Amino acid sequence: MFAAYAARIDRDAPLDGLELGERPAPRPRPGWTAVTVRAASLNHHDLWSLRGVGLAADRLPMILGCDASGVDAEGNEVVVHSVIGQTGHGVGPDEPRSILTERYQGTFAEQVLVPSWNVLPKPPELSFEEAACLPTAWLTAYRMLFTNAGVRPGDSVLVQGAGGGVATAAIVLGRAAGLRMYATSRDAEKRARAVELGAEGAYEPGARLPRRVDAVIETVGAATWSHSVKSLRPGGTLVISGATSGDRPSHAELTRIFFLELRVVGSTMGSRDELEDLLSFCAATGVRPVIDTVLPLDRAREGFERMAAGGLFGKIVLTPS
């Protein structure tokens, strides 16, 4: 079957390790389900995999891709939950949690094999392309907002780095849930798009906000960390799920954190139950993922290049067929 896969690890030039070509189709396995992929979406996790982060060289070649929607063997339209092993379903109780492609072949192919427990019904209200955007970036944003930030309708939230998959999802989800959303971006066009999606205001990084917020959604890391901390009201919550600009800020703002009794919460992906809730939320509210580009799988390299260049606003979706 045709696939996009990591053939080599290259920390400095990750796209040099990306190959497009034929790979073996998945073999049946007890407790697992083969899904014929209709759509899959890119994440920065895929780019990091090509750098060897979370993917060991002895597991190559590895088909990339965490997110997918498609059709199972019974003809059901489904969405794949990409966290493998967190409950033991399908892999045994002692296997540590991992994300698809860290241990198992991924979704940038005509078929993917996953534990049956990881397959959820796709709501008919969502297209395959829309549903394929949800299991990583949108699930991460959902968990950050509604599980770890602890915000409720009427609260205010700052999202750093508008344009990225998680940041964009947080703006849309927060607005739909009745939150007052603010965003930052270095790019004027991305700031304008953030406002179109429901942000009450969008600002350059480091700018003073109209008010101190109840929570900050942080995926940028070192470049925005100080601003994130300074933007919180006393007792506010900073939720971090990534550090694309580095994980060692020059100013940790420890004094402000303890003096104002701020909460710093780490967040990674989300549970199967949260993905089920997110699918239901989108179906019920009309919220839909923001899609930057849809490409056929044989043009996957273009999608990786666009993501690596940082010009995205929303998700890149690949369609194998």
> Rg to the nearest angstrom?
19 Å
Count of DSSP-assigned helices: 9
Q: How much helical structure, as a percent, in the residues?
A: 25-40%
Overall, the morphology is globular
Number of strands: 18
> What are the low-pLDDT stretches, counting only 5+ consecutive residues below 50?
none
Q: Could you give the order of the helices and strands?
A: EEEHEEEEEEEHHEHEHEEHEHEHEHE
Helix-strand makeup class: alpha/beta
Let me know the average pLDDT. 94
Largest sheet: 7 strands, mixed
Strand content: 25-35%
Q: End-to-end distance, in Å?
A: 11 Å
Architecture overview:
The protein is α/β, with parallel strands linked by helices. It has nine helices and 18 strands. It has helices at residues 44-50, 128-131, 134-148, 165-176, 188-196, 225-230, 254-259, 272-285, 300-309, and strands at 2-6, 18-22, 32-41, 62-63, 67-71, 77-80, 83-84, 98-99, 111-115, 119-121, 156-159, 180-184, 201-203, 213-218, 232-240, 263-266, 291-296, 315-319. The longest helix has 15 residues, at 134-148. It starts with a strand and ends with a strand. The mean pLDDT is 94.
What descriptive keywords fit this protein?
9 helices; six-stranded parallel beta sheet; 26% strand; globular; alpha/beta; 26% helix
Topology:
Elements: E1 2-6, E2 18-22, E3 32-41, H1 44-50, E4 62-63, E5 67-71, E6 77-80, E7 83-84, E8 98-99, E9 111-115, E10 119-121, H2 128-131, H3 134-148, E11 156-159, H4 165-176, E12 180-184, H5 188-196, E13 201-203, E14 213-218, H6 225-230, E15 232-240, H7 254-259, E16 263-266, H8 272-285, E17 291-296, H9 300-309, E18 315-319
Parallel strand pairs: 11-12, 11-14, 12-13, 14-15, 15-16, 17-18
Antiparallel strand pairs: 1-2, 1-4, 3-5, 3-9, 3-18, 5-6, 6-10, 7-8
Helix pairs in contact: 3-4, 3-8
